UniProtKB/TrEMBL annotation:
The lineage of its organism: Bacteria, Candidatus Beckwithiibacteriota. Its cofactor is [4Fe-4S] cluster. [4Fe-4S] cluster binds at C266, C269, C301, E308. Pathway: Isoprenoid biosynthesis; isopentenyl diphosphate biosynthesis via DXP pathway; isopentenyl diphosphate from 1-deoxy-D-xylulose 5-phosphate: step 5/6. The gene is ispG. Converts 2C-methyl-D-erythritol 2,4-cyclodiphosphate (ME-2,4cPP) into 1-hydroxy-2-methyl-2-(E)-butenyl 4-diphosphate. GO terms for biological process: isopentenyl diphosphate biosynthetic process, methylerythritol 4-phosphate pathway; terpenoid biosynthetic process. Its EC number is 1.17.7.3. The keyword 4Fe-4S applies. It comes from Candidatus Beckwithbacteria bacterium RBG_13_42_9. Gene3D superfamilies: Dihydropteroate synthase-like (3.20.20.20), Sulfite Reductase Hemoprotein, domain 1 (3.30.413.10). Keywords: 4Fe-4S, Iron, Iron-sulfur, Isoprene biosynthesis, Metal-binding, Oxidoreductase. Belongs to the IspG family. This is 4-hydroxy-3-methylbut-2-en-1-yl diphosphate synthase (flavodoxin).
């Protein structure tokens, strides 16, 4: 079991992070923020996907002003991503943003940083300092570069934190992102030894498709396994909904959060006598709409059946054109026709949902089952 580090508690809108609270799933919209209709539509879609905090780019005044109307139509904390222009931060705060993401080092000097800090303090709005390995200060490279990239990242974060602490501002979240996994992991480890500010974690510019997903999973999973991290974003070159889905899968794999069905299935071998791969994919597809945190096993034979999947809330293991359905290692039904395995199994899943009191999921499954009975 992973032991979480207890960081400072920071309030972001209606959510709190830190102090061992559940890690929140974050994403960033790909729309132009000034296009209120398109931005709200994408955020609502992200909410349905399981996103718990969302960031928008604020490159101009129209985007900052749009925040007020966007906030009225969404249900999760909104973060404004700002670079260089302190006036955009002030306008975003004025329009009710829940958190500001800046780099105090590139916002125009201490006086402008003080103005942002004062505005945040008046509205009780936190700030995320975003350190990126690709944009570290030259003087810090000269002083600490021989000690490695991670040390330079740490000193960059320290410099920015000190700017805020001089103004007695402590509602700070920190990210230390890079595209190199080992350097990023080391940077987070070093930071956690020096500070207890909550951490937003990710592997930046991970890339598209399967390589990007694997890179994110290895990097983020490694950091999370150290007990670090309070919010997470997967930065793959895909739709934001895919980023959210991938984040949830990482958290579920580490047993840090549970949302929806977790499918456990064996890879098959020469002992398998049913279409296990096809069956597992159908089960995953049909149960994807459920919100209950069930563990569902689809196993190919008795070797990997009830014994190895005893942790599952419900599962099945295949035989010769038949299957055994089990719950918590106990066999509850034998299905002797391969064509009936899936509908019978879904009926048993429904019973588990009823026992665990998930009425909305039961309704969803009833709709699916009707297609088999018509």
């Amino acid at each position: 079991m992973i032991t979480r580090e207890h960081t400072k508690i920071v309030q972001i809108g209606q959510q709190k992070i830190g102090g061992g609270r559940p890690i929140l799933v974050q994403s960033m919209v790909q729309t132009k923020t000034a296009d209120i209709k398109a931005t709200v539509k994408e955020i609502i879609s992200l909410e349905k996907s399981g996103c718990e905090m969302v960031r928008v780019a604020v490159p101009d005044l129209d985007s900052a002003k749009a925040i007020k109307e966007i906030k009225k139509q969404i249900h999760i904390p909104l973060v404004a991503d700002i670079h260089f222009q302190y006036l955009l931060a002030l306008e975003s705060i004025k329009n009710g943003v829940d958190k500001i993401r800046i780099n105090p080092g590139n916002i125009g000097g201490r006086e402008k940083t003080k103005m942002i800090v004062k505005a945040c303090q008046e509205k009780n709005i936190p700030m995320r300092i975003g350190i990126n390995t690709g944009s570290l200060e030259k003087d810090l490279w000269e002083k600490y570069g021989k000690l490695g990239v991670a040390r330079v990242v740490l000193e960059s974060a320290t410099r920015q934190i000190q700017l805020l602490e001089k103004e007695k501002f402590y509602q700070t979240v920190v990210s230390l992102k890079g595209s190199n996994i080992s350097q990023t992991i080391e940077a987070y480890k070093l930071f956690a030894q020096r500070y207890d500010y909550p951490l937003h974690i990710g592997i930046t510019e991970a890339g598209p498709g399967l390589p990007g997903i694997l890179k994110s999973a290895v990097g983020i999973g490694s950091i999370l396994s150290l007990g670090l991290g309070d919010t997470v974003r997967v930065s793959i070159s895909e739709k934001p909904e895919k980023q959210v889905e991938t984040t949830w899968q990482i958290l579920k794999a580490l047993n840090l959060r549970q949302k929806g069905i977790e499918i456990v299935a064996c890879p098959t071998c020469g002992r398998t006598e049913i279409d296990l791969i096809g069956l597992a994919k159908k089960v995953e597809q049909l149960l994807a709409c459920l919100k209950a945190p069930l563990k569902v096993a689809v196993m190919g034979c008795v070797v990997n059946g009830p014994g190895e999947a005893s942790f599952a809330d419900i599962g099945l293991c295949g035989g010769k054109k038949q299957a055994v359905i089990f719950k918590k290692k106990k066999v509850v039904k034998v299905v002797e026709q391969e064509s009936k395995i899936l509908p019978v199994f879904l009926e048993e899943v429904k019973k588990v949902l009823e026992e665990k009191n998930y009425p909305e999921d039961v309704l969803q499954l009833n709709q699916i089952l009707r297609s088999y009975h018509e």
